[in-house]
Amino acid sequence: MRKFFSILINEPLTWFLGLALLIFAIDQHLNPESRSIIIDQARQQDIADRWAAQMGAAPSSEQLSSLTEDWLTEELFYREALRLNLNENDLIVRRRLVQKYGFLVEQVPDQSLTETAIEDFYLANQARYEAPLRFSFEHILLSEQADGSNVLKKLQAGESPKGLGVNTLLPSRLTRKSTTEVDFTFGPGFAAALNLDLSNQWQGPIRSPYGQHLVFITSSEPARTLALSEVFDKVQYDYMQSLKQAQRREAAAALKARYPVVYATAD
What we know:
- It is a single chain.
- This protein is an alpha+beta fold.
- The protein contains nine helices and six strands; from the N terminus they run ααααααββαβαβββα.
- The longest helix is centred in the last third of the chain and has 27 residues, at 232-258.
């Protein structure tokens, strides 16, 4: 037995475990409450409120007991993870903390969102609230072998477009589409090739990745600046976002005075 204790005392692991236990005992003696997890009525009420908000009904006593035990397990894991410094050098934790601090500095006072301030923002940024040019048209897709100019003359002379084109999965009619939407359907540059002044008459042929088209424009609506009443909610949102961005920049500038920034250069 004496030999066993002699070997045990000379073992480095024994000293390591002993030192760890000593540090733990000292910490518990000096900070007896630092490790205490208090589950009081307020905590249980918070747990119950969270359940009710999610499920639409208050938890039963059995459910509350189970929820409390789940919360305790989460709290235990959380504290132990912090003790082991698992939050350090973790990109996900870092981003979440930055996000939470961002929420703090981006709080916008309600008194800042006055109708006058929103209107001023709208007037200063009217280019952001323009309705694009929109137009409606019909088209026929011709075969590659067809003489587009000859088919156009037939249409201009009043001949029916039925039977003059080829079958296609492209829509034969588009209504109130922007140039971006038209180009998305027919390919880049198709809308720009149309002559919007030639309404209610056939024009073309106009090329696309699908072939050559003859187009009949039925109507067009010029681009215009939307009235504030039409986009008030969007303007209010954009104005709030601009305030948040300004507050974020101000907060970053203030923090630079607290944390000196040193740009290290490579030797």
